[in-house]
Amino acid sequence: MSIPVYNLKGEVVGNEEIPRGFSIPPHYFSIFEDIRYVRNALRRGTASTKTRAEVRGGGRKPWRQKGTGRARHGSIRSPIWRGGGVVFGPKPRSFRISIPKKVKKLAIRSSISDKIINDKLFVLKGVKFDKVSTKEATALIKSLKISGSILFVFSDENGEVGLSMRNLPKVKPLFWNKVNTYDVVKHENLVVTEEAYKNMKEVWGNV
Q1: Domain locations in the chain?
Q2: How distant, in Å, are the alpha carbons of 7, 70, 111 from that of 118?
Q3: In this predicted model, what pLDDT tens digit does every residue of 120-143 receive, in sequence order?
Q4: Which end of the chain is more exposed for a tag (fewer CB within 10 A), N or C?
């Protein structure tokens, strides 16, 4: 099996083989687990409330225990008072979870395989700019004639191209070793330079 390789003008100039790791049936549960892992890691977990012990004031009993006709209270910072402490409120915490490395690897392979099955993976050959240029980046994306959001994956050889993509709407440039299941699934199209694709095959393509 192979996929077409495009040049800067959007023309098919060759084919690139699909390794066994990218031709597997997508394992959607591993994709779900990896996305949950990434999204949990993005949560800040800084929400915090004060208990009755942490709220300022309330050290003195508001009135005597008996004889006033009012309900008995020991502190104005009781949770049932306005301005009092919060019962079972959130505290700073980490939402991070752990998943096996094999599941994470299977998730990335499955997400890339899903793009190939749906003809949403585009490999580009000879993608090099002399300097950072948003204009050239726009022309490159237009030449592919694709719609929807794009995850543009590049390598060291295409550094100027990756930087040129930063200002384009619905396009996220990402270095090849930072590719993750969440970004692949989140974006409708996966555009990869030939050099980055070779690196990805070495890391994730072999089963």
Answers
A1: 2-27+101-205
A2: 21, 71, 11
A3: 999 999 888 888 899 999 998 998
A4: N
